[in-house]
Every structure is written in structure tokens, then in C-alpha cells.
Design goal:
The complex is a heterodimer of chains A (about 400) and B (about 100). Chain A is mostly helical. Chain A is built from 13 helices and seven strands. In chain A, the strands form two sheets. Chain A has a four-stranded antiparallel sheet. Chain A has a two-stranded antiparallel ribbon with strand order 4-5. Chain B has about 100 residues and is mainly alpha-helical. Chain B is about 65% helix and about 5% strand. Chain B is built from four helices and one strand, in the order ααααβ. In chain B, helix 1 runs antiparallel to helix 2, helix 1 packs parallel to helix 3 and helix 2 runs antiparallel to helix 3. Classes of the chains: A mainly alpha (about 400), B mainly alpha (about 100).
């Protein structure tokens, strides 16, 4: 019911805030060639490594998942028409109080949107700062618990809600027992693969699905103008948070680098598994690197006291790229919102715009070699393309088609 | 699936396989299926580790059993729901509207 959704979303948005904080592209750590074999293997690629840290392969490793996530969101929106509530929107989040449904509205949708955006953005900044503080003061257990709770809610509640919509849309009978079993299986496997160890492809798949579900929630529950302003606002915030010396995300990345730890694996999509061989006490102990197989990093070891493991076995071409889940979500939100406009041209334009933005960001990343915000370029190009396509190109094409003018 | 398990130590593999097997016990055939698929190559290669193979086999059998149970329930529900009257509606998440 609607009340359940209201209540549940409180926690969900907490997790959303967490996820937003991870909207950064992070380069993998510089390889530390400790073993001779690794050095030899490196020599050939050393020169190439110096000029451009990432090649076309890495770009593809990110484009495929981003595209998949966006396609998933687009398909869901087109197939399940409940997502474009449009004019009959009656349910709003508690975080966007300025809307046409209650007395707080200022009357103009744009100023409503600006006010909503300020509220949401302040919330995001607040949450991010708390997170950074927790990280700085090594409250790993708290962070872990928080993350775990959010993925729990995401994986169980959202799966259930989305499945419910699918069932209603396709109109087949479903009983509580079967759906409980499906959600139970899906959710537990998701928790295992994201927070513990699992096949890489399964973990990536679950992260994509989580991002898509989150994006769908945003599209469904945020009013039109508010959503666009929030997108723009988050992109600008991302820019400042990652690039400014005092930006929370930058502090986070730098602290993680100092301590030589991976950053919240369950919030970051990683394209490879990284292997570490810790030569503590002379006996090699190999383990999945906590990079994407998670809490391993925080649960099983106490990171501050352990010697940083050296990445000896990492072949140059196996270096992966990492992209925050927040980026997946906001890209999908943009494309998904375009999809509600009922025009495939707009959708394709935004899709291409985002991919272009991503490539540009990766290019800059390859040159600069520091953590970069992945949102700004893509979002701004995406918004520009959306506006142009929807209000300039489409009418132009319609008019040309009507007048039988071919270009 | 992927071969990241190739470089793990045998103890590690046995540990993971076993944990997946235990995890799948509470009505979680999906966990078992993933276990089977992930460790299939490990369990079928000539120099396989006996425990890994054992757990993979158990997971496969278990998944089949659970799948049959769930399949049976779904079959019964879908075909008999209409004839159960009020009970059928109470346990339903969604009752299809329109003509049957």
C-alpha cells in the first residue's frame, strides 16, 4: 500500500544517499611491482601505461554495464506503464514536500522544484558528510551495518514492489507463497554475491539490477521539474565533492588511498576481481580481494592494523575500472525520464549523450589518473540533448515529415 | 561462469562451496543452482577435489528437489485457484481481472 511505501522509503533514501556519494569514477591503484615476474610482464605494457592508463578495453568494460542498466530501466518503463504517473501523480516522497498535492506549494512548478532540490541536496550533503566522518573515525561496523541494511531493503522490498507491478501489468495470478519464495531467493543470493563472495558476473548483475530499481523509484516518485533540477544539482555537487580539496568524496577517496583500502565495495561496480597475495609471516595467503567481494574487507580483517597487501599478481591488462553505483542510477534516471516522454528519438539521444559523456570522462581519467566525478559531463550533455531533441528536433522532424521534406 | 576461482586455494574453494551448500538449505534453490554452475568446472575436471564435487552434487540434487516441490505447488495453484473460492483469493497477491 501507499503508506507502507512512504515509511519504507525513509530508509531507502538513506541508502540512496549513500549510493549517491559513490558517484565517482575511481582509478585502480597504481600497480606495485614487488615480484620479478610481475615486473617482466609489465615491461611491454609499461610504455603504453605511461601515456594512457586506460584503453578502449576499459571503456568497453564500463559502457556495457551502463548500457545494460539503462536498457533495463527503459524497457521496464515502456512495458510497465505505471511508472509514468504523469498527470495522475498522487504519491510523493516525504523529501519533496513542495508539490502540487499539498498546501506548501509555491504555485510555480519551477520554484517548487528548486525548493525540493535544495531539500534533497542538503540531505545528500548531510548524509555524505556523516559517512565521511564515520569513515575517518574508523567506525567501519556502523558503515557496514548501514550498507547492509540498505541493500537488504533494496533487494527485498523493491524486488517485491517491482514484481508486483509486473504481475499486475501482465495480469497473471500470483500467490503470496510463490512470490515470497522468488523474492527470498533473489534477495538472499543478492546479499551473498554483493556482500560476500560470488561469481563476478552475478555480482555485477545484481548491482545493475539494484541500480535499475533505484532509478525506477526516483522516476516514479519525483515530480517532473524536481527530478530535472535534482539531476542537475547532483551533477554540480558531484563536481565539487570530488574535485574540491575539501570535498567530502575527495576526502573519502584520499583517506581510502592513504590507508590502502578499497572503498565500500558494495557501492562500487568493479569490472574485474583483483587478486592479492598477502605475504604476511612468509606464508602466502591468497584471498579474493575485498574489492568487489566485499565486506570481506571490513568484516574479516581489521584494515587499520593489517599491512597493505601488494598487488603482485595483477597483470596490466587485467586492471579494471570502477564506477560508483550512484552514477549508474543517475544515468538511468535521466534516460528513464526521457523514456516516459513517449518518444524514442529523445531516448536514443539521451542514451548516446550519456555514453559520450562517459567516454569523455574516462578519457580525462586516463590522462589525469585521479578519482573523477562521472556525473557532470554525462548529465549535462544528456540534459542538453533531451531539451534539444524534445523541443527542437522532434517538432522539426514532425514538421518535415508532414511537409514531405527529406534531408 | 568466470574463472576467478582458479587461483584460489583448495581450502578456500571447499570453504566457499560448503558455505553455499549450507546457505541453500532454507528453501533457496537459486543459491544451490549458482553453486553448481560456479563450481561445475571445478567439480568435473580430472583432478577435482572430492569435497567440492560432493557439495556440488548435493547442491544439484537439492536444487532439483526444491524445484520439483515449487513447480508442483505452482502447478496446483495455477490450475486449482479458481475452484478454491475464498481461500484462493486470500492467498493471492493478484487475482487476474477480466475474462478467464
Amino acid at each position: 500500500g501507499i503508506n507502507a511505501e512512504y515509511g519504507g522509503f525513509f530508509l531507502v533514501i538513506q541508502s540512496a544517499n549513500l549510493v549517491k556519494m559513490s558517484a565517482a569514477v575511481v582509478p585502480t591503484e597504481e600497480q606495485v611491482p614487488a615480484a620479478p615476474e610481475a615486473v617482466e610482464a609489465e615491461d611491454d605494457d609499461a610504455e603504453e601505461q605511461e601515456t594512457l592508463k586506460y584503453g578502449a578495453k576499459h571503456v568497453m568494460m564500463l559502457i556495457v554495464p551502463v548500457s545494460l542498466c539503462m536498457i533495463l530501466v527503459i524497457l521496464t518503463i515502456r512495458v510497465i506503464t505505471m511508472y509514468d504517473q504523469g498527470s495522475q501523480q498522487t504519491v510523493y516522497l516525504v523529501y519533496t514536500p513542495f508539490n502540487d498535492q499539498n498546501k506548501l506549494s509555491t504555485g510555480s512548478p519551477i520554484s517548487d522544484a528548486v525548493l525540493n532540490m535544495i531539500i534533497v541536496l542538503s540531505l545528500v550533503i548531510f548524509m555524505t558528510c556523516i559517512l565521511v566522518l564515520l569513515y575517518k573515525y574508523r567506525c567501519y561496523k556502523v558503515i557496514e551495518g548501514w550498507l547492509f541494511l540498505s541493500s537488504l531493503i533494496l533487494l527485498f522490498m523493491f524486488t517485491f514492489l517491482n514484481l508486483q507491478e509486473v504481475v499486475i501489468r501482465f495480469n497473471f495470478a500470483m500467490d503470496y507463497i510463490t512470490i515470497a519464495l522468488i523474492v527470498w531467493n533473489f534477495g538472499v543470493m543478492g546479499i551473498i554475491s554483493v556482500h560476500w563472495k560470488g561469481p563476478l558476473i552475478l555480482q555485477q548483475g545484481y548491482l545493475l539490477i539494484i541500480s535499475a530499481m533505484m532509478a525506477l523509484v526516483f522516476i516514479k516518485y519525483l515530480p517532473e521539474w524536481t527530478l530535472w533540477f535534482i539531476l542537475g544539482g547532483i551533477a554540480v555537487y558531484d563536481l565539487f565533492a570530488v574535485l574540491c580539496p575539501k570535498g567530502p568524496l575527495r576526502i573519502l577517496v584520499e583517506t581510502a588511498e592513504e590507508r590502502n583500502e578499497p572503498i565500500f565495495p558494495s557501492l562500487i561496480y568493479s569490472s574485474t576481481v583483483m587478486w592479492t597475495v598477502a605475504m604476511a609471516d612468509g606464508e602466502p595467503v591468497s584471498s579474493y580481494n575485498p574489492l568487489n567481494n566485499s565486506t570481506g574487507s571490513s568484516a574479516n580483517s581489521s584494515p587499520p592494523n593489517r599491512d597493505p597487501p601488494e598487488m603482485e599478481d595483477q597483470e596490466p591488462e587485467e586492471q579494471g575500472v570502477k564506477l560508483g553505483l550512484g552514477d549508474f542510477i543517475f544515468y538511468s534516471v535521466l534516460v528513464g525520464k526521457a523514456a516516459t516522454a513517449d518518444d524514442w528519438n529523445t531516448v536514443m539521444a539521451c542514451f548516446v549523450a550519456i555514453l559520450i559523456g562517459l567516454c569523455l570522462t574516462l578519457l580525462i581519467l586516463a590522462i589525469v589518473k585521479k578519482a573523477l566525478p562521472a556525473l557532470p559531463i554525462s548529465i549535462f550533455v544528456g540534459i542538453i540533448f533531451y531539451v534539444c531533441t524534445r523541443w527542437c528536433i522532434k517538432p522539426m522532424c514532425d514538421q518535415m515529415a508532414l511537409s514531405q521534406v527529406y534531408v | 561462469l568466470s574463472n576467478e576461482s582458479a587461483a584460489a586455494s583448495p581450502e578456500e574453494k571447499i570453504n566457499i562451496c560448503r558455505k553455499y551448500f549450507l546457505a541453500g538449505l532454507p528453501l533457496l534453490p537459486w543459491v544451490w543452482i549458482v553453486n553448481v554452475l560456479w563450481f561445475w568446472r571445478e567439480a568435473t575436471k580430472p583432478d577435482h577435489i572430492p569435497q567440492v564435487r560432493k557439495y556440488v552434487m548435493f547442491s544439484a540434487i537439492g536444487a532439483l528437489i526444491y524445484a520439483t516441490m515449487i513447480g508442483a505447488w505452482v502447478g496446483v495453484y495455477q490450475s486449482q485457484r479458481a475452484s478454491w473460492g475464498a481461500l484462493g483469493d486470500r492467498i493471492s497477491l493478484h487475482v487476474p481481472y477480466g475474462e478467464p
